[in-house]
UniProtKB/TrEMBL annotation:
It comes from Sphaerisporangium krabiense. This is Maleate isomerase. GO terms for molecular function: maleate isomerase activity. The keyword Isomerase applies. The lineage of its organism: Bacteria, Bacillati, Actinomycetota, Actinomycetes, Streptosporangiales. Keywords: Isomerase. It comes from the Bacteria. Its EC number is 5.2.1.1. InterPro entries: Iso_Racemase_Enz_sf (IPR053714), MaiA/AMDase (IPR026286).
Amino acid sequence: MRPTARRIGMITPSSNTVVEPVTGELLGARQDVSVHFTRLRVTSISLDPADTRQFGQDSFVEASRLLGDARVDVVAWNGTSGSWLGPDRDERLCRAMAQAAGTPATTSTLAILTALRTRAVRRLGLLTPYTPDVGAAIAANYAGQGFPVHAARHVGLTTNYDFALVTAAQLDDAFDGLAAAGCDAVAVVCTNVRAAHLAAGWESRTGVLVVDSVAATLWHALALAGDTAPITGYGGLLARPPAAFTQR
């Protein structure tokens, strides 16, 4: 017999220090959801083939199979590699993950794009810790999905561990620049950046929707698991959840 609490399975990069504590913070005191993690090796982000090979499908399939042993209700790749490698790649990845785990599957990139579609975003701002060439690849892929990037800010880092060291002051400055440029939404593309707790303040101050990668991944995973209860205090995306999705 399955428990009544929903179980969310998440795959996170090995050098990520943000996803687990922030996901727990977002869920707060909820006792009806548990999140279960496994990791795969990711240490550096660039367009170099040595780095893109970190995201081979086989490792995701094995990680999903392990999460399936815990009888989770959904599996999610809590990483944004599909943003520069291509959303179509993530669609294929999700089909393989879903088959391995026996559950619906999503990724951070697909969650972000779903959030942008549900909010009818027109002037997208892109905020990342990555180098400009990775940012340009993300912009091209998002434009191909109907979201041309209106303005972008990139910190210029490549070491995944270092992304978590980007300060709130740096993020505030980048966000303010995007808001001033006339963006109606800003996507924070990276799950190792501590921005989820800043979203509500940014939105209150500027009226610009914030789609944080960690928050969006949880939002989409919960919806795929049939949970549409609002989560307040972290911006409009989590506070106004969608109707439950079905696996694409």
